Hints:
Blueprint: H1 15-20, H2 23-54, H3 57-65, H4 67-77, H5 81-84, H6 87-105, H7 112-140, H8 146-174, H9 177-198, H10 212-222, H11 226-247, H12 249-252, H13 257-278, H14 281-296, H15 308-319, H16 325-334, H17 341-369, H18 372-394, H19 415-418
Helix pairs in contact: 2-3, 2-7, 2-8, 2-9, 3-17, 4-7, 4-17, 6-7, 6-9, 7-17, 8-13, 11-16, 11-17, 11-18, 13-15, 14-16, 14-18, 17-18
Amino acid sequence: xxxxxxxPTAPTTSxxxxxxxxxxxxxxxxGFTLTVAATTLSGFALGTLVNDRTNSxxxxxxxxxxxxxxxxxxxxxxxxxxxxxxxxxxxxALQCLSxxxxxxxxxxxxxxxxxxxxxxxxxxxxxxGTGTRMGLLTEVAPASAYALARSLMNITAGCTAVLGFxxxxxxxxxxxxxxxxxxxAGLTGLGLVVVATTVREHAVRPTRRSGLRQTWTANKAxxxxxxxxxxxLNLWVPNxxxxxxxxxxxxxxxxxxxxxxxxxxxGMLLGDLLVGRLLTADRRRRGAYALRLLLAVPYLLFATxxxxxxxxxxxxxxxxxxxxxxxLQEQLLASTPAAVHGQVQGVESAxxxxxxGLGAALAGGVAQWLTPGTAITVLAALSVLVxxxxxxxxxxxxxxxxxxxxxxxxxxxxxxxxx
Length: 419
């Protein structure tokens, strides 16, 4: 999807209100918000439970972001479902599955192995849900308002995460992790009702059948161009390494982990608000490199083990750097045809989430040998290195050729499938 570089001004103040007057977008937005709230609560509760039982930085980090490991499996096998099946029916079914998983986590005495197994199952289907939701977004929101819609969803995700971490810390002071899981299940169920009652069914975008073969065909075309590969690398790796830093907050400072996590989410909210609302698409794209550096550089302060308030301020500033994701996502969509936008966004999201899981695992592994503060510093330095090295290649991303196929054959039908 072309970005709105032709717009001479930033979106007007009525832009968000105009989007929310669209009943379908409002439903997708509300369902997304409830899903973020439920995921935040359940992740914080599980991380706390694992930390209390094992006192292991590695297992604690993996428990908070373990679901992301399985998202790549969904992206590699069935992500074409995001474009090839009835999107509303698919999204409702996946919401039902998520509700069942959240409810299972609330069962008292459930072994940790079972909890990690649930994480993997939910992560696999979560990637399909993200691709389906984002594919619907490109149909529900006008093309000129796509960046505004993503900005609003990112801002809301940041705000919801702040409230979720604060609420999770409060609930755990007065209750058990199982009670927090129950609240998360309730929010997931509410999100299911909202989506089912507000989103209408849309036509299947491509004419070919979805499945493993079509997923592999489109993914192969997506990765065929080195510019696209560099762009996806820039979307995934620096982001994932910094999430790995966040995954160590419970081990670094258990008493103030909620404050640090909330500070990062608040910074993300502010960054998305400023970048999505005040900058044109062209300025967003030019500022992506600086934002990606901002994402990592403040974490280098953890090498000095700063006071809690200084650490929180650094995390807050770094959180604004997550806004670099928005212009990079616009650039990715501009290089791919509309027929596979659901799959492309699903693959991008799954890869980003998978790298968050890898970042968490890497951070936990390093913290097992070094201190959590040192591990945070090491991962931040790696994030800076990847950003600097990959910069020259990101500008080499092709634009969609305008005929619905996209360069590199993305979106083209297999001859046997069109026969």
